[in-house]
Amino acid sequence: GSKEMHDFLKLPLEKFGIELYLSEVKNISDLMAEIEYMGRKTNSIASAGICNNIKMELESIAEAHKAQERKTVYWEVWNEPFVTCGKNSFINDIIYAAGGKNIFDDLEADYPMVSQESIIAKNPQVIIIPDANGVSVQNVIQRNGWENLAAVKLMNVSLIDSNISARPSPRIIEAVKLVEKILWR
Hints:
alpha/beta; globular
């Protein structure tokens, strides 16, 4: 289960002798630790290979973009109200691993609400919208006041597969590669 969301299940299940693991992945390091923990818990040696592969892929992606200036990214977790990712979020790690810089990496909250004015003031070069929130690229481009954003002018507004990018999992490399493709196309 997920920590906080499924806390209420822990005690009732434990009364019946059923162990419940509550996941709390806030960044890529947490994800790696969780994969290794699950491997130990299930006596699976595959987890070590998964973690090694993730580390190697992340290093390769970092190497490919080390000489490039990081592009500024606004990741819209939700709209109405606008919710994005702060510096302590899993999504912030994805952006950074792909060679980008989250425009809200100065905010402590994992997923803070932000104003439209603050998004416009930070003028991102790239806007990423999860496909599950029902907003299209056209909706974003037509927002009042957004026509002067660098991302809109350069048509760097993209949808991303939420199933891959929004859930911390061993598919982290797929998420990073999706963002990398959006940033460096």
